[in-house]
Design goal:
8 helices; eight-stranded mixed β-sheet; alpha/beta; binds NADP nicotinamide-adenine-dinucleotide phosphate
Length: about 300
């Protein structure tokens, strides 16, 4: 197995901790249940986790706005959604460019119910191997992308009246890790998680003052079998030892359905026995940071 540690203490994701835990595998099924329809903007929606989240929310009756830089992949996800009777809009653009983000958010309409920031890129490099451009790009898509999308989406999220709103950052186990080959990616994903915590704090204050409740979560997956790894030649992944994108999307869906849930509750109903859901060191005191990984993850 070629699985370098993602900076997670071994006890956090151990095989022993997964065995015998939880109940029978939960079917990964959604049903249309959103009345009146809700709207989500999803970045990185042309592939992997973002696409899986878009498919799940659309299957439940959400309008989804799909963001990314590659028209063909976005069109393919939108076509799948529309063929199944769902509503999807495509906005081609870069989350690190404010003008592109403005078009993305505008496509959501006058109000929004969820913003999910899944756009990202990664690498497995030491500081000596990592060049400035890769560092900048990794940091900018994770952190500047989180900032620009949240800043521009917030007025529309605040204006919504259709229950609570959500901002969900797809962070990483690397957000809390210290692996030597993640000085760039781990720093970027750590900052993205921290961004979520600060924003959550502001949203709590706003809700106390009478504003719309807007829940902010960071979902922190271990290795997921997605196109992400095609751009990372330094590492081989073994798909059978990875999470599936749909399993990360399942966590997002659970959070939206029950924002007060926590890692312990989700661990009881995890999507398959091999998945471990835990609090994420060193962020154990925050219920809104949820880590998940295949049990084989070191
Ligand atoms: N796969 C894993 O093992 C893993 C583990 C933990 C966390 N994550 C996180 O999960 C998120 C989703 O990754 P994934 O695994 O689903 O990989 P993925 O399939 O490569 O998805 C990443 C998406 O981000 C988009 N993107 C990248 N840079 C962008 C930019 N500047 N502006 C707009 N869109 C951009 C890409 O589309 P375009 O290139 O077309 O723009 C792509 O659709 C990432 O934030 C990643 O850090 C992944």
């Amino acid at each position: 197995m070629n699985h370098p540690a993602w900076g997670t203490p071994p006890e956090v994701f151990s095989i022993a901790s997964a065995r015998g835990m939880g109940r029978t595998v939960v079917p990964m099924k959604s049903s249309p249940d959103v009345t009146p329809p809700k709207t989500a903007v999803i970045t990185g929606a042309g592939s992997g986790i973002g696409a899986a989240i878009a498919l799940r929310l659309a299957a439940r009756g959400w309008k989804v706005v799909l963001g990314g830089r590659t028209p063909a992949t976005l069109a393919s996800v939108a076509a799948q959604i529309r063929q199944a009777g769902g509503v999807a809009e495509v906005v081609v653009g870069d989350v690190t460019k404010a003008a592109d983000v403005a078009r993305l958010i505008a496509a959501g309409g006058p109000t929004l119910d969820a913003l999910i920031h899944s756009a990202g890129k990664g690498h497995c490099l030491t500081i000596d191997e990592l060049d400035e451009q890769e560092f900048r790009e990794t940091l900018e898509v994770a952190v500047l992308g989180a900032f620009l999308t949240a800043k521009q989406a917030l007025p529309k999220l605040r204006a919504g009246t259709n229950g609570a709103g959500h901002i969900i950052q797809i962070a990483s186990l690397a957000s809390g890790g210290t692996w030597n080959k993640e000085v760039g990616y781990g720093t970027a994903k750590g900052a993205q998680l921290k961004f979520a915590l600060h924003l959550a704090s502001q949203m709590e204050e706003e809700a106390k003052a009478g504003g719309r409740t807007i829940h902010v979560h960071a979902v922190c997956p271990g290795t997921v079998d997605t196109p992400f790894w095609k751009a990372i030649p330094q590492r081989t992944i073994e798909p059978q030892l990875c999470l599936k994108a749909a399993e990360v999307a399942w966590v997002v869906e659970q959070i939206i359905d029950n924002p007060a849930t926590n890692a312990e509750e989700l661990a009881k109903i995890r999507p398959r026995h091999e998945i471990v859901i835990k609090r994420h060191a060193p962020f154990e005191r925050w219920n809104n940071v949820i880590a998940l990984a295949h049990e084989s993850h070191p």
